[in-house]
């Protein structure tokens, strides 16, 4: 069953940053998982602070990200997420790009065996471009700030639990997370709460398919003027379907579709979007 658990981890955790799920499993000592991922979306459906839909010029974002996980011990796992390249722009502006904010995480297994339970602490460092101005194509004097990082130090704390339904090749996970945010310049950011559930199943010994539902919402005083590009005052319900196909012992390919909507938590201060991503995986089990 250990072989299956390692595979669960690969599909449960290594997806675009906006859709990363969590599980109760940690990596076995000296095993690792590496993933290079490309994601893209476009949208003109902006949901304002009240959740009302506003038509804007088309906004697009493309990103290339690296995700890595290494088992320090059987109970302690080191994780990193590095946005190597983020490109933002409107159809009315030029596109601007830059390095994103690095996330470093330590994950500890509180319980193992039938119902693995883990807790993780993940500081996110302001390594991205805090100010990255795009220029209006029709009026060079008009500029809009589309940073590749949010400019603040924040810390995610996550509690996650999982279960394998062996001998069925089926698993389920649930998690709850709190994001303590600080400020950018003189602007204090609203803290965030996130939770989600995930189920996955293995087909043909090589293909894992999973589905996730998650929510993100603000905690504390809502900002008077929200900033969607930095995620301040943002809330939404997320639904995704993804999969990973193993190519031999070490390599794999992944694909995922993610949609943000108002099914459970109203989408606010966000572009309602459909994110598509593909990636390549290298792992040691």
From TrEMBL:
Q: Which domain of life is it from?
A: Bacteria
This protein's UniProt keywords: Signal
Signal peptide positions (record): 1-21
Protein name, per record: MetA-pathway of phenol degradation
The organism is Flavobacterium gillisiae
